[in-house]
Amino acid sequence: MNNVVSLIDATVVYPDGESTITALDHATLDLRAGQVLGVVGESGSGKSTMLSVAGALQVPTSGEVIICGEHAEKASVAERTEIRREHIGFVFQSPNLLGALTAREQLLITEHLRGVRGKALRAQRDRAEELLQRVGLEGMGDRRPEQLSGGQRQRVNIARALMSKPQLLLADEPTSALDAKLSQEIVQLIRELTDEFQFATMMITHNRSQLDIADRIVEMRDGKMQEIPASEVGV
C-alpha cells in the first residue's frame, strides 16, 4: 500500500497540575496518495492535535508517526523541519497573506528567502503561474490581498501550499471564514487537486456537509478517533 502518512498508537499527553490530559489517545491510521480524509469532532476533541502530529509539528508522547517513510517521532527539530519542507503543504483557516506582496509573490516568498536564483527560480515562477491558473486565479498574479475576495485569498493559500509539490496536504478548517457557496467551491477544489496531483489530504472541518468530498471520515471524541461511514455523520 502506498501510505503517505501512518499513525501507529500515537498518543499525546499533557500535564495538568497533579493529573494529565490525553489530547490524542492511541490514534492509528494510514492515509494513501489520492485519498481525502475528513476529520470531524467537537472543539477540544483532539482534531487539531492529530493534524499537528501528522504534520510533524508536534512529537507524540508515545507511538509512531511515519511520513513518506520517515519516522517523524524520532527526528530532531531540524529533521522535522526538513520533513515538512519536503513532504507537507499546510492550508490554515486564515490565508495569512503578506499585504505588501502580490499573489504571485506569496507563492515565491520561500524561494526568495532561500536564495533561489537563475533557472531554478524561473522554474518556480513558471510553477507559480501554473498553480494560480489551476486554482482559478489566471491573470490575478499581480493583485495584492486587498484586491482579492476572501475566496480568492484562500485559493492563493492553497496554491502556495502546493508550491513544494507536497505528498501530504493538511487543511485545518480551510473554509471557516467563507460563506456556504464559496466553502463548497474550496473543498471541491481540494478534492480535484488531490485527484490530479495524487497527494494525500487530511481536512479538518466543522461543517459536516463538506464531508461528501472525503473518501474516508474520522470522528474525534476525547482524543480517540473512530473511522465511520458517511451515513453516520449526516453526509
From TrEMBL:
Keywords: ATP-binding, Hydrolase, Nucleotide-binding, Transport. SMART domains: AAA. InterPro entries: AAA+_ATPase, ABC_transporter-like_ATP-bd, ABC_transporter-like_CS, ABC_transpr_LolD-like, MacB-like_ATP-bd, P-loop_NTPase. One of its GO terms (cellular component) is plasma membrane. It comes from the Bacteria. Residues 5-235 form the ABC transporter domain. The keyword Hydrolase applies. Its EC number is 3.6.3.-. CDD domains: ABC_MJ0796_LolCDE_FtsE. This is Macrolide export ATP-binding/permease protein MacB. It comes from Corynebacterium gerontici. The lineage of its organism: Bacteria, Bacillati, Actinomycetota, Actinomycetes, Mycobacteriales. The gene is macB.
